[in-house]
Amino acid sequence: MLSISHRGQIMPSSPIRKLVPFAEAARRKGTRVFHLNIGQPDIETPRLMLDAVRHSDFKVLEYSHSAGNESYRRKLVEYYASVGIEIAHTDIIITTGGSEAILFGFMSCLDAGDEVIIPEPFYANYNGFAVAADITVVPVTSYIDSGFALPRMRDIEAKISARTKAVMICNPNNPTGYLYSREELETLKEIALKHNLYIFADEAYREFSYSGKHFSAMQLRDVDSNVVLMDTISKRYSACGARIGAFISRNRNLVDTAMKFAQARLSPPSFGQIAGEAALDLPADYFDATKMEYTSRRDLLVNRLNGMPGVICPNPGGAFYAMAKLPIEDCDHFCQWLLESFSYNNQTVMLAPGSGFYGTPGLGRQEVRIAYVLNTASLNVAMDCLEKALLEYPFRKE
Amino acid sequence: MLSISHRGQIMPSSPIRKLVPFAEAARRKGTRVFHLNIGQPDIETPRLMLDAVRHSDFKVLEYSHSAGNESYRRKLVEYYASVGIEIAHTDIIITTGGSEAILFGFMSCLDAGDEVIIPEPFYANYNGFAVAADITVVPVTSYIDSGFALPRMRDIEAKISARTKAVMICNPNNPTGYLYSREELETLKEIALKHNLYIFADEAYREFSYSGKHFSAMQLRDVDSNVVLMDTISKRYSACGARIGAFISRNRNLVDTAMKFAQARLSPPSFGQIAGEAALDLPADYFDATKMEYTSRRDLLVNRLNGMPGVICPNPGGAFYAMAKLPIEDCDHFCQWLLESFSYNNQTVMLAPGSGFYGTPGLGRQEVRIAYVLNTASLNVAMDCLEKALLEYPFRKE
Asked: For A121-150, what is each residue's pLDDT tens digit?
C-alpha cells in the first residue's frame, strides 16, 4: 500500500475553510451568508496597480531575478523608509506571497524538530508552514482579558528550550487585531538577545494601525542580525491574488541563505511584481481612506458585539479582525449551527471558530474570529443575525 | 552567535547562476555573451495569453481557490485529453510554477530522510527542493554513450532501500533532452508496482518532443495511485514569469494531502492563471511552429557539435537542451574560462557546467549543458565561438 508521508497526514486542514461545505449548503437553501470568516478584503485594488499590468508591454513573459525585479526592490526601499524602516534593496527578497517569506524564514533558521515560540491565538496557517518545514510551533498564551497583549517576558522565557530558534509575532495581529507597542517589541528584543533567537515579524497589516503608530521589529536598534520581516502586499493594497510578499533582513548571511531557496523556485510572479511596483506610486494619503473605512467598521463591530449580552470583544488596535468571546461552549459547533440550522430574515453569518487559532488543545472554544471585510451596512445586518442567533442557540451558556 | 539552519547551509546554490558574475564582467569588457546556459526561451509568449491579462476586467485582485480557478482546471482537462491524458478537474491542483508541484509531491509522499531515485544527470533544482523537504535524492547514472536512456531496471532496483518512496523522471529530460519511450515508462511502472513506489513525472517539456510522440506517465494503465504528474506552462508557452504549474494525480488521498499544503499558501497567482487559461484557446497547431523552430535549432546545434574534433553530442529527442561531452577535464573551469579569458570577434558563449547536474561526485566533469534558446543565426555564431575556444583552451584533453 502506497503511503502518504507522516507530515502529509499531520498537515492541518484550513480551520477557516472546513465550514465551506455548510456555507454552500446554506446558499443552496436560499440563505444569504455574510462572510466574516476570511481575510479577503472587499476594498478595491488600486486602479493604478491593475492598470500597470493591463498596460504592460513586453513580448516574453520571462523569469524575473530570483530576488525579484531590482527596480521593484529599489523602490520598496523608499516605501519602507517612509514608514521608518531603513533597509537596502539587497536586504529584500521578493516572495510569492507572505506565505513564502514565512517558509523561507522557517527553513533558513530552523531545522527539523526546532521550535518557534508564537503567542496564541495565531494565524492558523503558521501551523501549516511549520509542518511543511518539519518544525514545532510552541504556543505561549495571550488572553482576551488583557486584550491579547504580548505575554509576560517570564511566560515567554518559560517556553524556551534548547531547540528554540525564534520568536514570532504578527503585528498588528491576525486573529486578534492587537497592535504591539514599542515596549512590547523591546521586550522581544531583550529575549532575542539574551537567548540568541531570531525575531520573525509578520507585518502584513502594518498599514492598518488605528490606535497609535505602528512600530516595526525592523525599527529595533542593535538587533539587526536577529530580525526578519515577513511582509506582503496582499492586505495592504487588497491584492491577495498578486501573490507578492517580501523576506527582509539586515542579516547578510541569512538573506544569502534564503536566496538559495529563492533560486530553487526560480522567481516570484512577474505580473504581481508589476502591480506591486506600481503601488509604490500611490499618493502618500492612499491609506487614509481605507483606514477610515476600516476604523468605522471596527467601531461598529466592537460596539455591536459588546452590546450583546454575554459577549466580550476587546477593541482591536489594527488589522481587520476581532476575536470575540461568546456565551457558548463550543465555537466549532456554533459556527456550523449558524450555517446549518439558523437564519434570520433568510440571512446568516459565517465566522471562524476561535479554536483553530490556538496551539494549546482546548483553548479558544468560546471564541470566534470576525473579519470586518464587509461594509458597515452589511456588517450591521450580520451583527443582527449574530445577536438573534446567540439568543436562539440551544446550547447558549450564561 | 545566531545560527543558520543546517538545511540552509547545505542548500545548494544554483550551479547555473554561479557563473553570472563572470558573464557580467565579460559584458563590462564589451564582449557579447551568447546565453546558452539557462532555459529561458526566446520564443514570444502567445499574444492571446498576454492580452487576456491585459483585457482583464475586475476590481479586486482576490485570492483564487487554493486548487486554482475551477474554470481553468476544467479547461485543462480538455488540454490533457488532447494529449492522451484522461483526468478529472478534481485531479488537478494549480501550483505556483512546476517548482511548487515538485515540492508538494516531495512533502506529501516523503518524510525527512526518505529517498527518491532520479536518473542523473538531472535538473539541478531537484536538489534544492529535496533539501527544502529534507529528503535525499539517490542518483542512478544514465550515460552519454547510450544517449542518456533510462538506466537498466536492475541498476534502478539496486538503488532501492527501505527509505525509497519514489522514482522521478523528467520527460523529455532536462538537461539531456532524452525522450523516454513507452517501454521505458512501462519499466518504471513495473518497478513502482513491484516496490510500492510513487512515479513522479516532470513533463515540463512534453510539447517539445521531436523524435516520436510523447508518452506520459499518466498514460500508464493500472498504476493510477502511483503516478504524479508535475507540470508547468513555463516552457510550453514561453510563460516562465507566470509562475503557473500543476500537481496532478488520480490518487484521491494524495491530492487531498497536497491540497492541505496548497491551502496553507492560500492560492496560486491570479494573473498567471488568466494567462494559463487563455492559452487553452490557442489553435491546435500552435506548437507546430515552435517545434519546427526548436527542431532546426537542435539539428544545427547537434551537427555543429559533432563536427568539432573530440566532441560528442547525442541527438536529443525533446526539450531544448543537449548534453555534450567536450575534450576537457573540468567543465567548471572551462565554462568560467570561456567568460573570463576567451573571446572570438569580441564574442563568447555561456554554458552550464555538466557537473552541476550529477548527484554522484566527480561525474559530468567533461560535459556541458547547452540550451538552444537562441535563433539559428545566433546559435551558429555561438558554435563558432565554442569551436575556436576548444582549440585555444590551454587544458584541452584529447
From this structure: 999 999 999 999 999 999 999 999 999 999
Residues 6 or more apart from A164 whose CB is under 8 A from it?
A: A114, A115, A116, A117, A138, A195, A197
- CA separation, residue B97 to residues A63, A218, B269 (Å): 11, 31, 9
- What is the full DSSP assignment across A256-284? HHHHHHHHHT----HHHHHHHHHHTTS-T
Q: Is A147 strand, coil or helix?
A: coil
Fold assignment, A6-44+287-392: Aspartate Aminotransferase, domain 1 (3.90.1150)
**C-alpha count within 13 angstroms, C-beta hemisphere, residue B140:** 22
Q: Which CATH architecture has domain B47-279?
A: 3-Layer(aba) Sandwich (3.40)
Contact A72, A276 (CB under 8 A): yes
- Where is A103: in which H helix or E strand? helix A97-109
Q: Is the pLDDT of residue A15 over 80?
A: no
Q: Which three-class secondary structure string do you get for B184-211?
A: HHHHHHHHHHHHCCEEEEECCCCCCECC
- Tens-digit pLDDT profile for residues A239-262: 999 999 999 999 999 999 999 999
ipTM for this prediction: 0.95
Q: What are the chain B neighbours of A5 within 8 Å (beta carbons)?
A: 107-111, 114, 165, 257
Residue among A95, A260, A267 with most chain B CBs within 10 A, to mutate: A260
Three-state secondary structure of B237-275: CCCHHHCCEEEEECCHHHHHHHHHHHHHCCCCCHHHHHH
Give the integer Cα–Cα distance in Å for B12 and B26. 25
Residue B17 has a pLDDT of 73
Residue type, B319: A
Instruction: Look at residue B97 in the predicted model and tell me its pLDDT.
Output: 98
- Nearest alpha carbon to residue B123 among B90, B95, B92, B98: B98
Amino acid at residue number A361: P
Please give the model's pTM, rounded to 2 decimal places: 0.96
Chain B environment of A225 (Cβ under 8 Å): 2
Higher per-residue pLDDT: A13 or B257: B257
Distance CA B346, CA B335 (A): 17
Q: Which of residues 40-99 of B touch A (CB under 8 A)?
A: 40-45, 49-50, 53-56, 58-64, 66, 96-97, 99
User: What burial class does residue B361 get, using C-beta atoms within 10 Å of its C-beta: 0-12 exposed, 13-18 middle, 19+ buried?
Assistant: exposed
pLDDT tens by residue, B298-348: 999 999 999 999 999 999 999 999 999 999 999 999 999 999 999 999 999
Chain A residues whose beta carbon lies within 8 Å of the beta carbon of residue B4: 108-109, 253-254, 257
pLDDT computed for residue A355 by the predictor: 94
Spans of chain B, pLDDT less than 70 = none
Query: Within 13 Å, how many C-alpha atoms sit on residue B345's CB side?
Result: 10
Q: How far is residue B379's CA from residue B35's CA, in Å, rounded to a whole number?
A: 10
CB within 8 Å: B8 and A108: yes
Cα separation of A192 and A167, whole Å? 8
Chain B residues whose CB is inside 8 A of the A14 CB are 66, 260, 263-264
Q: Model confidence over A330-343: pLDDT tens digits?
A: 999 999 999 999 99
Task: Let me know: does B342 contact B328? Beta carbons within 8 Å.
Answer: no
Q: What is the three-class DSSP state of A328?
A: coil
Please give the CATH topology (third level) of the domain spanning B6-44+286-392.
Answer: Aspartate Aminotransferase, domain 1 (3.90.1150)
All three cell numbers of B8, joined, read 540552509
pLDDT at A211 over 90: no
Residue A331 dihedral angles phi and psi, to the nearest 5°: -60, -30
The structural domains of chain B, with segments of one domain joined by +, span 6-44+286-392, 47-279
